[in-house]
Amino acid sequence: MKHEIIRHRHETRRRALSVADKQYLTPAMIRIVLEGEELADFVSLGADDHVKLFLPADGSGQEQRRDYTPRAYDREARRLTLDFAVHEAGPATQWAIGAQPGDTIEIGGPRGSAVVSPTFDWWLLVGDETALPAIGRRIEDLPAGVEVISVVAVASADDQQTFETAASHTAIWAHRPAEDADDPAALLAVVRNIALPEGEGFVWIAAETTVARALRDHLLIERGHPREWSKAAGYWRKGEADSHGKLTD
After folding, report:
1. What are the angstrom distances between the C-alpha of 212 and each of 23, 183, 200?
2. Which residues contact 156 (CB under 8 A, 6 or more apart)?
3. 112, 140, 160: which is the final residue of a domain?
4. Do 74 and 34 contact (CB within 8 A), yes or no?
5. What residues make up the domain containing 220?
6. Global pTM?
7. Where are the beta strands (DSSP E) in 14-167?
8. Other C-beta atoms within 10 Å of 158: how many?
9. pLDDT tens-digit profile of 123-161?
C-alpha cells in the first residue's frame, strides 16, 4: 500500500477567543479550553499542527508570538483545547499560569497541515513535555490494528499522562530532571533498546533541538529507518526564545 504525506494549506487569520476552562493535567502541564464563534471555520487536520498565540507586548513594546499544538477541537461547541508545558517561564507559560475563565487571547493559523496517510503498520513517537500535546493527539487518532510506541521524557512519574485509543499503544516514560531537558541521554538510552516492530512504520520526533537531532540521527543513520518516513522537529532550543522548526540538516 502506498505511503504518502499530503500537505494542506489553510486560510490564516486572527481569531479572538476567550478562556472557557483551565485545569492542571499534571504538575507540569496546564490544559486551557478556548471558545468563540470565530472557531466556526477553524481547520486542523494534522496531529502536529501549530497555531500562533499572540501575547502581550514585552518590555520593548513588541507583541510576543508563540506556537502551540491544537490538542483537540470541537467544531459544534466552538472549542479549542491547548496544553501548556510549564517549563521555562516564557510569555505563553506566564499567560497560561495566570489565565482565568473569561480572559481573552488571539490566535492565528494553523497555516497548514501535513497529513500522514493511514497506511503504516506502526508508529514510533518520541519527545519531551513540549511534544506531549501532539503525541497524545496522534495516539488518540490512530485506528485499531496499528501499533504505536511512545517514548516521552518527563521530570517524574507525576508528569505522566494516559491516552485512550483504539490502537495498540505501548507507553514508555524516561524520567530526568527538568534542567536536563536539553540532554539527549535519557531518551537515547530508551530508544536504543527498543526493537522496532515488523512491517513499515513512521517515526515522529520533537524535543529540544539538540535532543531531537541526536534521536533522529540514531534512528535514521544507526538504525537505518527511511528518512522519507520520518519527521523530526526542534520544538525549542535552550537559551533561545521562540525557536521552533523542522530539522533539515
Report:
1. 29, 10, 22
2. 175
3. 112
4. no
5. 120-246
6. 0.94
7. 14-26, 29-35, 51-55, 64-68, 70-74, 79-85, 104-108, 112-116, 122-127, 147-154
8. 9
9. 999 999 999 999 999 999 999 999 999 999 999 999 999
